[in-house]
Amino acid sequence: MKPNLFGMTLAQLQDLCNAHGWPRYTAGQIADWLYRKRVWDIERMTNLSLATRATLASETTVSVTQPHNCAISTDGTRKYLFATLAGHPVEAVTIPDDDRTTLCLSSQAGCKMNCRFCATGQGGYHGQLTTAEILSQAYALPQFDELTNIVFMGMGEPMDNLDTVLAATEVLTAPWGLGWSPRRITVSTIGLVPQMRRFVEQSQCHLAISLHNPVASERLALMPAQKAWPIAEVVKTLKDYSWTGQRRLSFEYTLFRNINDDARHADLLADLVGDLPCLVNLIRCHPTPGTTYRPPTTTAIDNFRNHLLRRGVNCTLRASRGQDIEAACGLLATHANNPKQ
């Protein structure tokens, strides 16, 4: 299989150019065509010599995966289905909100983490995405020019595919790439500590931690990864870094009825993260087939949020979007034959 130019970082393009004896600046020219001009036909890269273009065309490819299905929610949310080289589809979601359009993209086909409340985890793990497959979820969208923010909160655990995620965020933020500010991108994790450390030290993108329960034994019942990466260790690690600049640290907390939605849990959550300058995103549970998890009442959610605010915890309730097309948090499961799509 020919190497794919799309998805290569500048350093990788420079290695390719060096191997052929081409000038170093050629790598920057190729990157400019791929990521800024969005030209994916080598013959149209007209500032490259004819000989260079001929060699690239014979030895490499430019493959950008196009979405082959789109479901549209009554609230304007769109869910796109993408094929992968391994044959397992993945989903990406665009969420419009006034003058913002956020893209929620996937980093893996399926997920290894097996969180009990997540449809992706219930479907198992099917493979890593390549850098090109991650970037295609943004670049190939009809709404590409409308995008204002990207969150790595779709299918998969981003820190379990960290090299590729870092390469993708480099393309999105580097001056030779798309050139976005890292502040427009958030990467989530359940808390794989070594990879999380590396991410914090090598990237300036925002970080979101999937927390969901401050009680270790109860979190373990929801998230098997708690056994390997206890949330107390995750939070202790985060305190080794400064969060007072423009980079944002947030915690995702899905509320489940009669499981983690009372004043005791609010107090324990405040005790756990209160020393960190952070935002807690509260999320209503979105029921998945075969589980008994349900969202709390509106009153219970309001009480929980108000309790956190009284404790001095900066928190917000995330609006549920795209639930009617199974695009809301925890529902992505690539139902390619879903009649709603």
Please, could you describe this protein's structure?
With 341 residues, this protein is α/β, with parallel strands linked by helices. It has two domains: 10-59, DNA polymerase, domain 1 (Orthogonal Bundle); 67-325, Aldolase class I (TIM Barrel). The protein is 31% helix and 18% strand. The chain is built from eleven helices and twelve strands. It has helices spanning 10-20, 25-36, 50-59, 119-122, 131-139, 162-173, 193-202, 216-222, 231-238, 263-273, 298-310; strands spanning 67-72, 78-82, 90-97, 100-104, 108-110, 125-128, 149-152, 185-189, 206-210, 249-255, 279-284, 315-318. The strands form two sheets. The chain has a ten-stranded mixed sheet with strand order 1-2-3-4-7-8-9-10-11-12, covered by helices on one side. A two-stranded antiparallel ribbon has the order 5-6. It is elongated and about 70 Å long. The protein starts with 9 loop residues before the first helix and ends in a 23-residue tail after the last strand. The relative contact order is 0.12. The model is unreliable at 336-341 (pLDDT under 50).
